[in-house]
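INFO batch 0412 | record 1 of 1 | parsing
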Amino acid sequence: HRKKLRYFIPEWDDLVDPDFDFLTDTHSGDDCGWTNAVYAHQLYSEPNYDGLLMSRAVAEKSKAKSLRVNALGVHRMLRVPRDFPVMGDCGAFDYIMEEVPPYSTADVLDYYTRLDFDFGVSVDHLIVSATEEQRKFRYDLTINNAAEFLKEHRKADLKWEPIGAVQGWDPDSYAKAAAQYVKMGYRYIGLGGLVRSSTKDILQIVRKVREKVSLDVSIHLFGIARLDFMKTFSDAGVQSVDSASYLRQAWMRLHQSYASMDGPYAALRIPEAGKSFRAKHMLAHPELTDAKITKLEQSALQAVRAYGARKVSLQNALDALLDYDQFVTKERVSMEPAYRRTLEDRPWEKCECAICKSQGIEVAIFRGNNRNRRRGFHNTWVFYRLLQRILNGETVPFLHGDDSSQMNLSLA
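INFO prediction complete | emitting C-alpha cells
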C-alpha cells in the first residue's frame, strides 16, 4: 500500500505504562513519563503506520522533552529504527494567532539536521477564517519561506528530503503556490490548513494542484485521514497523509470510541472515583457521597470484568454499568442501547490485535490514560488494516474518524 499512499501518525506523547496493573489501577513505577512508558509501535510486532510526524511545537512543549529530543535525536527518542521515516514540521496550529512564525528558516534547517529527521517541512503560517484579513501576507510569507528553505537546503547539501508547505484559501491559490514550488525545484509538497475543510473542497484543491504539478512530485495532506475517501485521495494524486484522529477517537467520541473491523462501538465508561473530573462532578448529586460513588464504580468494574470472563449475565453487567453511568454527566443521554450492543457483540474477543488479545475487555473500558490510549492504539491498528484494504479497492466499514482538532468534546 505504501506505493499508493503512506500514513504518518503525529507524535503527541501518546505512551502507556507497559506493566500497568488494571485490577488496582496503579502504575508499575513512580515515574509515569517517557522513561517508564512505551509507544504504540513497541506493543505490536510492527508499527501500524508508515512513519511518524513530530512537530517542533510539540517536541519543545516542555523543557524535559526538549532536552531529551535534542540529546537523543528523533529516532532514538521515538524508539524506532533509523530507517523508519520521521517527518518534522513546525506545528503551525500552535502559533496560528501570532503575527509571524516563531521559527526562522535557518533555525529550522539546523533543527531538522541535528535531530536527524528524514523529511523536513518549510516554515508556514496558517490561513484560516480567523486570519482572513492577513491571508495575502501569510500566503506570501509561506511561499518566501519555502523558497529560502530549499535554497539553503541545497547550499548546505543536506541529506534529508525537504517538503514545501503550501497554504491557500481556494483551489486556485493552492495551485498557484504549488506551481511556484515545483518551479523552485521541490519534489515533495504538503498542503496545509485543510483540517476543517469539507472532503469535497479538499478534493477540488488536490485535483487543481495536481493539474499544475507533475506526478513525479509527491503531495502530502496535513491532518487528513478520512478513511472512506482515502482511495479517492490516492487516485487524485495524494502520496501521503497524517492524522491521529482514529487514535484520539478512543477518548473523544462517545459512540465510536472502540473501532473494529466491522464498525465502531461505544466503549464502556467507568471513570475513576476520586480521580476523574467526571467522577468528582458526581458529588453535585445530593444523594451521592464519596463512599457511594466508589461503591457504584467498583460494582460496575467487577460486573463488567465478570461478564468478560463469562461469569455473569449481560443484564447484570449492563445494570451495574448503567447504575454508575447515569451520574457521569448532568442530563446524561442514555447509553443503554450502545452499551448493550458492545456487550452483546464482545468485539474485544474478535480482535486479533496484540493489545486486545492480552488485555481483553479492559481495552473496551473507558477509564484513564492507560486504557484509553491502549484503545487508541487498537483503533489505529484497525484503521491501518482497513486503509490497506480500501487502497486495494475493497469496501470497508466507516469508522467515523474526524480529522478536526475540534472534535465534539461535549459528547465525550
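INFO post-check: Confidence is low (pLDDT under 50) at residues 402-412.
INFO record closed
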